[in-house]
């Protein structure tokens, strides 16, 4: 579990336990509700390990959830493809790097808090935009806040080297993650598919493997880096 789970969950559990000694119906109801909320928060901020595929040229899901968009889309004048993933409140909300490489740019964009499943959320909502250079070329992915999720959190910064499947941040309480890939990507998922961050393969790019970048420390395996979770087990 990430540290935010303790920050939000422990006070709810303590308040819930403190309510029961009053021995009234209201106290029992309030205590039960608070305990259930505390346990839900612990579940929400869970941070499971994942088996990250090691084959070259694979792009893994940056998030758990359901694929809601698969489409051709330009990005800064370049042809490409976008995959959007909606994270329901019961999904794991820790986000992961879809490829190994260097974070060339990390940009925070303030915005609205439209429902995360809405198409306009990709462009109008608050978001962190990661632009990465990797063995498969340049890719971009976004952590997007939703109507309930009001905070996008990155554990990385521009210039950091990450492994495929490495934990890079989270979005609190329901959200969306977008992934933009170059046009030569062979997409392996369809709308409606359920995916898991770090382990589900979304696409494959074989052409030009290794021609773009070999980030420092890339000899370290994904498992070695991925196991270093942020703020908890």
Short synopsis of the structure:
By secondary structure, the protein is of the alpha+beta class. It contains 4 helices and 14 strands.
Number of helices: 4
C-alpha Rg (nearest Å)? 19 Å
The profile of the biggest β sheet is: 8 strands, antiparallel
Q: What helical percentage do the residues reach?
A: 10-25%
Q: State the end-to-end CA separation.
A: 5 Å
Q: State the name of the first-level CATH class of the largest domain.
A: Mainly Beta
Instruction: Determine the mean pLDDT.
Output: 84
Low-confidence regions:
211-224
Question: What report would you give on this structure?
Answer:
The chain is α+β, with helices and mostly antiparallel strands and 233 residues long. The protein has two domains: 3-44; 58-220, Distorted Sandwich (Glucose Permease (Domain IIA)). It has helices at 3-19, 25-44, 121-124, 222-226; strands spanning 58-60, 65-72, 80-87, 94-96, 101-109, 127-134, 137-145, 152-154, 161-162, 167-171, 175-182, 186-187, 194-195, 201-204. The strands form three sheets. Strands 9-5-6-7-11-3-2-13 form an eight-stranded antiparallel sheet, with no helix packed on it. Strands 1-14-12 form a three-stranded antiparallel sheet, with no helix packed on it. Helix 1 runs antiparallel to helix 2. The chain is elongated and about 70 Å long. Residues 211-224 have low confidence and may be disordered.
């Amino acid at each position: 579990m990430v540290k935010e789970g303790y920050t939000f969950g422990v006070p709810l559990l303590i308040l819930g336990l403190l309510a029961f000694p009053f021995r009234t119906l209201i106290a029992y109801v309030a205590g039960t509700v608070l305990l259930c909320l505390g346990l839900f928060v612990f579940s929400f901020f869970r941070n499971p390990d994942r088996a990250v595929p090691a084959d070259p040229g694979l792009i893994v899901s940056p998030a758990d959830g359901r694929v809601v968009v698969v489409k051709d889309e330009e990005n800064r004048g370049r042809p490409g493809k976008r995959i959007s993933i909606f994270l329901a409140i019961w999904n794991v909300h820790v986000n992961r790097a879809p490829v190994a490489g260097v974070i060339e740019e990390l940009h925070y964009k303030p915005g609205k808090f439209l429902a995360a499943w809405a198409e306009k959320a990709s462009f109008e909502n608050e978001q962190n935009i990661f632009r990465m250079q990797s063995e498969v070329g340049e890719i971009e992915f976004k952590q997007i806040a939703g109507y309930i999720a009001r905070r996008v959190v990155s554990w990385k910064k521009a210039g950091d080297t990450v492994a495929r499947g490495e934990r890079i941040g989270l979005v609190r309480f329901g959200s969306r993650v977008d992934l933009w890939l170059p046009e030569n990507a062979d997409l392996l998922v369809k709308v409606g598919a359920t995916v898991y961050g770090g382990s589900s393969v979304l696409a494959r790019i074989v052409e030009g493997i290794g021609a773009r970048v070999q980030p420092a420390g890339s000899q370290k395996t994904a498992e070695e880096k991925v196991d270093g979770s942020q703020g908890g087990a």
